[in-house]
Structure formats: structure tokens, C-alpha cells
Amino acid sequence: MKRGEGMPAPAGWPTGGKHKGSRARWHLRAASALALAALLAGCGGGGGGGADGSASSTAGGPASVPDVAAQPTSLADASRLADQASFGATEAMLQAIMADGPARWVAQQMRADVSRYTRGGSDAIHRYTGRDYCADNNLGASCWADNYSHEPLASDFFRNAVSRPDQLRQRVALALQQILVVSSLEVEGTYGLRHYQNLFLAHAFGNWRTVLEKVALSPLMGDYLNNLNNDRTDPNENFARELLQLFSLGTCELEADGNLRGGACQPTYDNAQVRAYAYALTGWTYPAGGASPWCQGTGGPDGNCRYYQGDMVPRPGAHDDQPRALLSGVTLPAGRGAPAALQGVLDSLMAHPNIGPFIGRQLIQHLVTSNPSPAYVRRVATAFDTGRHAPFGSGTKGDLQATVAAVLLDPEARGDSAGAQAGRLREPVQYFAGVLRALGGQTDGRVLTWSWGADLGQHVFRPSSVFNFYPPDYPVAGTALQGPQFGILNAGSGLARINYLNFLLYWGGAAPSAGMADALGTRVDLQAFEADAADPARLVDRMLRLAVGGRMSPAGRQAIIDAVAAWDSRAGAPAYLHERIKTAAYLVFASPHYQVTR
């Protein structure tokens, strides 16, 4: 089981500097950070196909997205959907959701052009037969970052999250990459990481079986969890175990509503069954195309050379072809090949009753709320199992279009307010992107990746283990609630969240990095709010509508208005107007009402 160790950024890369503010601001940050858990645990709602993953033929193509009639909704409901299904609201997005209604907007998002990760080097690093690709080709100090690291993908991730229109696809892909984890801590090769992560963008509204098949055939995953060139006589169990534990079924048998079957944990599988899956999954090697001075493999006894573009290919002599009994009554006959065995593995997983509630509950947690009711989980699991959530879906089990629609359009997700225990902590990458989207910002991702991402515990594409940045069942201290993202919230990262606002609003953000292609830096543009700055109440109300759909108690709203109004014309125009905008943005986006989505 892989557990990667942290490693420092290479020399010359951005690092997580320590930022200082006034004593008063630090006290405010501490108070805001400590209030996050209280809000989640609190008492009710606020006041007011191709090289990057073509679809598998085993599950059929994705369902066509239905036409849905417009059914206008409220600002509060639109704001909730923007939090759940995008990286953060903009004023234009809120207007679109209000006019179209949730179902029509979701359908339009599913039809939007697909974002891609495109940056970084090619497969040349795994075709080179010299000794040192970077040094021999005089590619300079950025060669490792451009060709072996995740940094180019992180740049694409943040650029897309802030500016691309297919927000729902990107949010679902983020959920998938955090369930089906590969970490750049343990596998290197930018083009391979790019190929793997593009699979989730391509299949975000496809079928879970297809996603599992592409992951099982990924040479990057094969390297990460030791299934590539696995030993047919004594196979490594890493991938087989995580396929069962994390990627499909979980460790305990579940009711359709996600509760433990019979009220106690009855193991879904035992170690003998893990071994059976490990044997069944032997017989795969790298796709053809790789070469190096240390490997001359051509599919023979040692398999192909390392190469991350495309799917793994069968290595017949390395496959265990003995009969193997799997879950769900599936038995692999003697003499079958690795491709047939893989289909049997997928059959057994997709037929198991755990898969709908296990995957459905995690998608609810990633998109809507950390503590869904059993009834909510059951409804989403039903959509997964039937492949339909009218009018979405193909009717095939595992349909993600139907499942995602069920998650977002459920009665517990929609409406003007949430239940008493509903909500989720906005995880760091969503917080970074959400503030930038709301405040007219832009980013090239560099400072968000190596500085702020590291400070807040979510260095994108670089989780510390296959268990992701945080577990789905992480407990919120002092409550009976689960709060997965609280697993990376502590005193330091809580303060860093608010310090991020200082960085954007008071320190000018980050300038474009020298040597980075089409560098943007990371900055906000507050010009759009200047027209309202003369009226503190109007400015604050506009900021509250944008950030939280206007949901804040009258006392909280008035406190922010008073702080904004404290900047008066004696400071000189236009300086005092600019300070009002920064103060309003700081207090609204630092508030627990924004940091915990409800």
C-alpha cells in the first residue's frame, strides 16, 4: 500500500513563505478559523475518446444530455448550486442559474466543451536512450518541472478552474481524482500524469465501469500501486486491495442508504478474496513505445519499457489463468487471458450492492454535504444502480450523468436553505479559485500550488497517499458529524486561509513568474465594485449576494457595513473607496458563511 513521503520543492521553485499582518488581523483570522467547525456543526441555515481516454466499449457510450425546460429559481438556491457544482459563483453565473433553474443549468454544463490539461512535456522522456534527458539536451533549469513533475498540470488546473466555462465537469473530475488517487510524490512523468487526469475530465459524465476500466489499465496507476508487470505466482496486492477498499466497494457491507448492513461492520471481502483479485489482475505491461539505456524490453519476459501514454497491454506469459472465485458470484474460468479476467473483475464489482451507496455517498460529500441523510444516499444510489435520474442517464448501471444529476437536484441539495447539519468545508483549492472567480481574478497557478497549496494541506496532484488529502469519514471535533476537509484544517492552515485574502487584497497578489509560458501571476481586479463603494450597505449587500447568496444574519451584515463605513472621505478619494472594497471583500470571504458551503 503506497504512502508517499513529502519532499521539498526543487531549488528555485516557489516555496511557502510566511506572511505577516497586524496583531488585530491575526486575531480576526484565528476567530474566523475556529468558527468554521462551529458553523458546520451548528444550528440550521444562515439567516437570509482519443489518446486521453476514449470511452470503453464495455459500458456503451455516454447518454446524450437531455433538453430541460427553464424553471427559474431564487438567488439563494442559485448560490447553493454554484457552490456545489462550480469552483465559485460569479455574478453572471448566478443570473444564469436563476433564469434557467438548476436542472436546465446542470444539463447545459454537461454539454459544455471539455476542459483539458495540455501543458508540459511530451513522451520524449520515456523514448530517450541517452543517459540524462535534461542534461544531454541542454533543456535548462525548468526541464524537470516541465517534463517530470505535476506543475504544468497544476497550472492548467487553476487556470481552468478560474476561467473555463465547464465548471461542473471540472468539479466532478476533482472528485474522481480524489477517489481514484495517483500522486506525483511517487510517479514522475508529466505526460503520463496529464493523460491520467484527462481521463476524469473525459469521463466525468460517462460510466463508473468505464472509469474503473481506464484506471485499471492505466500504466501510471500500474506503477503507483504495483500492478504493472505483477508476479503471476505471488502477486503484489496493492492495486487489488485499493480497487476493493477505495475505488468501488469499501470494507463493510452496506445497505442501499449507506448504513452498515445489520448495524455493524460485516466485511465486504477477506484477504483470500483480495488475493483472488490480485491473481486475476496479473498479466499487464506498459504500452509499446518506451525505450531507455536500461531497458530493451519488447513485451518479452521482462515486459515493455516504461511508457505512460495509453492503456497497458496484455503480457500473456505473466497472467495467472487458474480458476478464481470473485465477489458477486463471479468465477473466472481456467485458461482465460488477462483482458477476459479484467472484464470479470469489473462484472463482479458492478454487480455488488455496495457500489451504488459507496460511490454515491462520496460524490455527495465532494459536491454537496459532508453528512447526507440515509434517504439522500439511497436516492443517489438508486440513480447509480438504475442509470437514470429523469430525464438524465442512459439506463445503464453506473451512469455518472444520472448519478451527478441525482446528487445536485435532490431535495436536500436544492431550495433556499439547508438542514441543520448540512454543509461542507470549502476545501483549499476551491477556496483559492472561488475568491478569484468572485473578485475578477486570474492565476497561472504557480503560487497556489507550491506556496498556498502546501500551507493549506492540499498541494494539487500531490496527496501524501492513496487515501487522498483527507478521509471521507474524518470526524469534526466535538460533534457526531463527519467533515472530510477538516482533516487538513488546523490552527496553521486555518490562519493561512484568511492570510490568503491578505495576499490578494492587501499585498497585491503575485506578479507573473519569469520564465513561465504565458504567466499571469495571481491577482484580483476590484474595479467592478467601484460603482457601489460610495454606499457601504449597497457594496456589502452586493458582496454578500455574490459570495453567499445574501445568507448572513442581520447582525453580521451590519457589523461588516460598519467596518466598511469606517473608511470615510477624510482618507482621500479614491483611496477610501478602494479600502472599502477591500474591507468588504476581506470580511465577507473570511467569514465562516463563505468558507462552509451550505
UniProtKB/TrEMBL annotation:
InterPro entries: DUF1800 (IPR014917)
Biased composition (Low complexity): 53-64
Protein name per the record: DUF1800 domain-containing protein
Region described as Disordered: spans on this chain: 1-24, 50-72
Domain of life: Bacteria
